[in-house]
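Slide 14.
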Amino acid sequence: MRETEEGTIERVTLEEAQRAAPFELLLPTELPPGIALASVELVTTGELVGVTCYFQGKEVAIGALRLHLEPGDEVPPTTEPELETVDLDGTPARYSPRVGRLEWIAEGRYVSLEGPGLTLAELVAVARSLAPAPPLPGPSAGTATPGASGPQEVQATP
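Slide 15: predicted structure.
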């Protein structure tokens, strides 16, 4: 856990982030080739809890992608000198080309997608692929094996 002036940042598992977040997590279903989820952080600032997911390739040269989600109903102010407005299937988004950041509001969540080595088209493709994270494993997410005695085996359903 790291303490900052703004709050705390703690590396957690995806499951821990899902349990702690006061909103449904979104994850990309499509990523640029060679990029996968690398780590997840829980970001707490006062009463606000956010989640940051880092996606990276096996080779550092492939680049990285950062997805940050937190409760919100407006995109925060920026100091970026150059901005573009992007249409994400009817939702307005703000693109900062210098840092490769796309920001928008989705169902009560502020979403920030940052990929400095990616084109705007690649960021938009990842943004459009965001979908609810898979349900957490557990009894409510699966079915018990019939006839099992003692602790029941649980098989997760897709």
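Speaker note: The two ends are 33 Å apart (CA to CA).
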